[in-house]
Design goal:
Elements (H helix, E strand, L loop, with lengths): L1 E7 L2 H14 L3 E6 L6 E9 L2 H14 L6 E13 L9 E12 L1 H17 L12 E10 L3 H6 L6 E5 L1 E10 L2 E11 L8
Antiparallel strand pairs: 1-3, 1-8, 2-6, 4-5, 4-7, 5-6, 8-9
Helix pairs in contact: 2-3
Length: about 200
């Protein structure tokens, strides 16, 4: 099974992101937009794993999660990976990955993600050589019919807080031709008072 470790979003937040997505879609000529049910924040992509590996991963996460304090993030900016140049002749801006950026308590997020990667590496899962760039994917391989500044204007006044109280092991499955991300375990972070 294809799997990753990540942070699940509330239904309300998924709907807020979907509404923003609907504002952005008319600017695109083509591409693959993520389904609202699949919005999440990835901590570590694992690839194909078996039942024994899933058990080992869950054991590691269960040990790790209570050692990290719950924290708050904000989703409040647009970004891209693999953005081409806007062609004024064709009126197209190609974007390989279109995403929402993360701010807020990034120190806590990065500490959690780094600790997780160390534990997973001990299980045989290599670290991502590109480093960790937290984001929420909105779409892939899209062609936009405006410049990026126009897209950014659609974001205002979109700011949404994410209360991170748990992390999950997800499986990525295909049902009726549609990819679905399903959490198969959840592990609660420490909920006590924050220390300075």
């Amino acid at each position: 099974m294809r799997a990753f470790v990540g942070i699940e979003f509330s239904t309300e937040l998924k709907m807020e992101i979907h509404e923003l997505q609907e504002k952005l879609k008319p600017y695109s000529r083509s591409g693959r937009w993520k389904h609202a049910d699949n919005f999440h924040l990835t901590l570590s992509f694992l690839g194909e794993i078996d039942e024994q590996q899933a058990s080992d991963i869950n054991r590691v996460i269960a040990e790790l999660a209570p050692k990290h304090q719950s924290f708050t993030l904000e989703i409040n900016r647009l970004g891209t990976f693999g953005q081409g140049n806007y062609n004024s002749y064709s009126g197209v801006l190609p974007i390989r990955v279109f995403w929402l950026g993360i701010e807020g308590e990034l120190k806590a997020l990065r500490a959690l993600q780094s600790d997780l990667e160390v534990k997973l590496e001990a299980l045989g899962f290599p670290r991502d050589p590109r480093g960790y760039n937290p984001h929420v994917t909105l779409a892939q391989n899209i062609k936009v019919e405006c410049d990026f500044d126009e897209l950014e204007r659609q974001l205002i006044p979109f700011v949404n807080k994410v209360e991170v109280n748990a992390i999950h092991l997800f499986v990525s499955e295909v049902h009726d031709g549609k990819r679905v991300y399903r959490p198969i375990s959840d592990h609660t972070l420490y909920q006590g008072e924050k220390t300075t």
